[in-house]
Specification:
68% of the residues lie in helices and 5% in strands. By secondary structure, the chain is mainly α. A hairpin with a 2-residue loop joins strand 4 (220-226) and strand 5 (229-236).
Length: 623
């Protein structure tokens, strides 16, 4: 029993001092005393030895307790240190990752910047004006190399801003513009200098420089030269520096941007100069510029009363060299229209739509303008005119000013207030005779719609006079046909006949002759004239419309409905056939159907007063 108990004590709890606590030590002493007391009854010596042993164990436990307490404190301190070190390592890791991300970002920015600079270098087509050389003697008068070069650059900017053209315009800049100075390490080269080096190696920039000197007679001699620009000297008096920079800039503009210079000549009324320049520059011009030179050449030819067929061939030659030259399609339409081939002009518009991949498509809407006028597609035409004017500082890219063209469309939409506003806000330009001509035309149409026959005839006669200018007649072929009905309404039968005889072979001339013959009581002759207008251009709506209105006047309502339906199919966005069709349906007692036609017409002419009145009347009968 005793050995078994002692063995259990020595081999059990006595070997696990790490779990002792102060209470355990006190219990151990009491337990030792109890064991010693019990053993002393059988063997006092064993009791003494056991008691001594147990005391030694108790002392050992005390030492272990103190050691554990000290070790616990050290462990806590060590854990705190480890936690601090872990936080430092975590912060360092975050800092390192952040720095690596920053380096990656910087590398990306540098890479993207380098790619952008390379792309800019390969695609750069700029005219860069370097500082000119000038003698120190002129510096006292404020004439330095930068001042001279700045004058040339200002004039180049003015010329380009005044050029209405679809040709790509070069960037214009000087070579001393401020730049961000980010030096490349150990080289001292800036990003701007790197960009210039890349453009010099891979780009297509033209660098212009020159010098200004005093002549022996006290005048000035300005010389300009550059990449691809032969040196040329211009001389003038001492006070004519502005004149010299102007002629020098014109020379540079013509040499560096031939297509735009040709357009500028045409825009400023210098059509003979434009023809001569295009002839001389075509062979030496870049292939990219040649279609534009041909196009400007043809326009100038038409503006000077030249052969329309020759102009047509030039337009077609431009298209052959540049199949996506959208403006040339529009000009082909104009030339065919001027030749009296309105059906051919309509087909050219269809060719444009197919080549552009549909409408809307790749071709800008403004280049459908001739097709839109022929088909009375007035809403899209008006939107394209306004958008083109807004995106080109009010100038537009057409040969004539957009203001009168907008007024013409508004008048055709039966919105006299909008038409008059467009005329009043058109800026006068003595170099553009179409402005005065179209102003008379629009006001004549507005007077006719207001039943002021006398004023309409007066305005149309003024228009007819302006129409003798080839610039006017080539831009708006067939418009002179409208003079005839205005003269007839004013009681000027002879003038009406003369106007239509001079008008030519156009749908409007034929249909207006039908209206005049009908007014004079020649119904068979009128019907033949209407049939001729339809036969001349079977895909255009105007002939069918006038014929249908005439049939309605003669009581043939079913025949009128058929012709008006034909007109609507060929000009689905033209309000006039829809209103006339509604009028016919109203006479047939089909008020609801008439109301539907009036509502459809209002989509395309929302401010037409007569249309609104007819709609109100039909609504009352349909109720």
């Amino acid at each position: 029993m005793a050995e078994g108990l002692l063995g259990r004590i020595l081999g059990g709890e006595a070997e696990k001092p790490e779990v002792e606590a102060p209470e355990a030590l006190a219990g151990a002493e009491a337990f030792a005393a109890a064991v010693a007391a019990r053993l002393s009854a059988s063997d006092p010596e064993v009791a003494r030895d056991t008691s001594a042993f147990l005391k030694e164990q108790t002392q050992l436990l005390k030492v272990q307790k103190e050691h554990l307490e000290d070790e616990h404190a050290l462990r806590l301190a060590h854990l705190r240190n480890q936690l601090g070190e872990e936080n430092v390592r975590r912060f360092g890791l975050r800092l390192r990752v952040g720095f690596q991300l920053f380096l990656a970002l910087v590398a990306t920015v540098i890479g993207v910047g380098g790619a952008v600079m390379l792309r800019d270098a390969f695609t750069s087509r700029s005219v860069v004006v370097e500082a000119f050389d000038a003698p120190l003697a002129l510096a006292a008068r404020g004439v330095t190399g930068k001042v001279v070069a700045g004058g040339v650059l200002d004039e180049l900017n003015r010329l380009q801003a005044a050029t209405k053209s679809s040709a790509a315009k070069r960037n214009l800049s000087n070579a001393w513009a401020s730049e961000v100075k980010l030096a490349v390490p150990e080289t001292g080269i800036s990003l701007g200098e790197i960009s210039r080096l890349l453009k010099a190696r891979f780009g297509h920039d033209l660098h212009i420089d020159g010098d200004l000197v005093e002549t022996p007679t006290g005048g000035l001699a300005l010389t300009v030269r550059g990449d691809g620009v032969q040196s040329k000297t211009f001389t003038g008096a001492a006070g004519e520096l502005n004149k010299l920079t102007t002629v020098a800039a014109e020379y540079v503009y013509a040499e560096s941007q031939p297509a735009l210079w040709a357009t500028y000549l045409g825009n400023t009324g210098r059509n003979e100069d434009a023809i001569a320049f295009c002839r001389a520059a075509f062979a030496r011009a870049d292939k990219a510029d040649r279609p534009y030179l041909l196009n400007t050449w043809a326009i100038a030819l038409q503006n000077t009363g030249g052969s329309p067929r020759e102009a047509l061939e030039l337009y077609r030659a431009a298209l052959k060299r540049k199949p996506d030259f959208w403006v040339a399609y529009n000009n082909v339409m104009n030339a065919l229209w001027g030749l009296g081939d309105e059906e051919g002009a309509w087909r050219a518009g269809e060719d444009l739509r197919k080549a552009a991949g549909g409408r809307p498509g790749r071709a800008p809407e403004t280049y459908y303008q001739n097709w839109d006028v022929l088909t009375w597609n007035l809403g899209p035409f008006l939107d394209a005119l306004v958008a083109d004017a807004d995106s080109n500082a009010g100038l537009g890219t057409a040969a004539g000013s957009p203001g009168p063209a907008i007024a013409d469309v508004e008048a055709r939409l039966h919105d006299p207030a909008a038409a008059e506003l467009a005329l009043q806000t058109t800026k006068a330009d003595p170099k553009d005779p179409t402005i005065a001509a179209m102003t008379h035309f629009v006001r004549g149409r507005l007077a006719a719609e207001a039943n002021d026959a006398g004023q309409a005839a007066t305005e149309m006669e003024a228009f007819a006079t302006a129409y003798t200018d080839p610039i006017v007649s080539s831009n708006i072929p067939g418009y002179n046909c409208w003079v005839g009905p205005a003269e007839e309404a004013a009681g000027h039968a002879g003038k009406a006949d003369a106007a239509l005889a001079a008008g030519g072979h156009f749908v409007d001339c034929y249909r207006f002759r039908g209206d005049i013959l009908d007014h004079r009581g020649d119904w068979p002759g009128a019907q033949k004239a209407y049939a001729d207008s339809v036969a001349l251009a079977p895909d255009l709506p105007a002939g069918y419309y006038s014929w249908g209105v005439a049939l309605a006047r003669h009581g043939d309502l079913k025949g009128a409905e058929t012709k008006l339906k034909d007109a609507n199919q060929r000009g689905p966005h033209w309000a006039d056939p829809l209103k006339a069709w509604g009028d016919v349906l109203a006479k047939l007692g089909q008020s609801k159907d008439a109301l539907a036609k009036y509502d459809e017409a209002l989509k395309y002419a929302p401010n037409w007063a007569a249309l609104k009145e007819a709609r109100e009347a039909a609504a009352k009968h349909a109720a």
